[in-house]
């Protein structure tokens, strides 16, 4: 039991679940465009210190710079902005449920690019997952925070799938922690021009500072590093299936810590989405692959080598329209009504 708990993929799940709750808490004071660079640049500082203490030299080469740039812009800068703008009103548990449809996007990309195919069960699972997202999106607007923000989370899931496609070859040549360091550094710098930093440090409650520390250290530096270690060392079937557990912890933490009671639509739609993703993932894993791609569990890995040159030259950050920042609440409890 102890050995199982020390596995990188299990620790990644435990470290990732609080990130959505911490983000919601931090967004009660910090604007979405402020939190994104703050999160990633602070995480880059933490990881940089770790690399210095470990005396680990940087191994990123010039040949990998275009791919690393695409990873940082897509999986950190673009993904972080969409996620934060979406989570401004979408509850933590609902966010984690919506992000788990990324394997569906990965399969669609693999279908057209790598001739990925699945069984009838897989196609049915994809339909069930999409239906679950529709139920969440069109559910109780008060509970899900739908005002377009739910669709931003879905867009973040799309970027997540593209990010994983482009990143995977890097893990064979660059240490997992170093990939996260460069992703946080470049992604944070790329989003810095969008920030306004209107919140005064003296007016930030202690609970928000604590949430920010949890988000930076646990939800980003630790969780992302463990995720990359899992991708590089653990079989995708083992590591991927554990990602489906994250929404359970996120829903419970959001309920207990933030008072975000999940709506019936979020629970039914989330259950359908997770069931659909499981059907698609297991069906694709069981079928012999037609191309070099592989999609199993909840971590899609597609060796899209023919696409890399296109992606690294065309991926750009698409930011949603920036909303006027509301006055920072005097206490962190005011955000409970946003969900």
Automatic annotation (TrEMBL):
Record-annotated membrane-spanning stretches: 36-53, 65-85, 97-115, 122-139, 151-172, 179-196, 208-227, 239-258, 264-282, 294-317
Descriptive protein name: DMT family transporter
InterPro entries tied to this protein: Alkyne_AA_exporter, EamA_dom, EmrE-like
Keyword tags: Membrane, Transmembrane, Transmembrane helix
Domain EamA residue range list: 10-137, 151-281
Record Pfam families: EamA (PF00892)
Gene3D superfamilies registered for this protein in UniProt: 1.10.3730.20
Species this chain originates from: Cryobacterium frigoriphilum
Domain of life where this protein originates: Bacteria
Family named by the database record: Belongs to the EamA transporter family.
Entry keyword Protein biosynthesis: no
GO-annotated cellular components: membrane
Signal sequence, renumbered to the chain: none
């Amino acid at each position: 039991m102890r050995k199982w708990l020390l596995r990188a993929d299990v620790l990644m799940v435990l470290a990732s679940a609080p990130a959505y709750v911490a983000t919601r808490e931090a967004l009660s004071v910090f604007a979405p465009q402020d939190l994104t660079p703050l999160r990633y640049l602070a995480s880059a500082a933490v990881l940089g210190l770790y690399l210095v203490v470990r005396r680990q030299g940087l191994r990123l080469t010039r040949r990998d710079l275009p791919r690393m740039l695409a990873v940082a812009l897509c999986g950190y800068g673009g993904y972080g902005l969409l996620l934060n703008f979406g989570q401004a009103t979408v509850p933590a548990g609902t966010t984690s449920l919506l992000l788990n449809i990324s394997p569906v996007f990965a399969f669609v990309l693999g279908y057209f690019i790598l001739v990925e195919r699945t069984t009838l069960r897989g196609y049915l699972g994809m339909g069930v997952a999409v239906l679950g997202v529709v139920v969440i999106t069109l559910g109780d607007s008060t509970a899900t925070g739908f005002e377009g923000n739910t669709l931003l989370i879905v867009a973040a899931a799309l970027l997540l799938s593209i990010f994983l496609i482009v990143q995977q070859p890097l893990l064979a040549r660059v240490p997992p922690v170093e990939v996260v360091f460069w992703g946080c550094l470049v992604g944070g710098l790329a989003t810095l021009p969008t920030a306004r930093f209107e919140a005064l440090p003296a007016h930030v409650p202690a609970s928000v500072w604590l949430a920010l520390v949890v988000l930076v250290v646990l939800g980003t530096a630790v969780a992302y590093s463990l995720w990359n270690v899992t991708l590089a060392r653990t079989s995708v079937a083992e590591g991927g299936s554990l990602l489906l557990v994250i929404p359970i912890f996120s829903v419970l933490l959001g309920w207990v810590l933030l008072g975000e009671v999940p709506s019936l639509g979020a629970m039914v739609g989330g259950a359908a989405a997770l069931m659909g993703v499981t059907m698609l993932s297991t069906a694709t894993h069981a079928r012999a692959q037609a191309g070099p791609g592989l999609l199993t569990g909840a971590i899609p890995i597609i060796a899209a080598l023919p696409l890399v040159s296109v992606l690294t030259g065309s991926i750009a950050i698409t930011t949603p329209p920036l909303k006027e920042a509301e006055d920072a609440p005097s206490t962190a409890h005011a955000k409970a009504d946003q969900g």
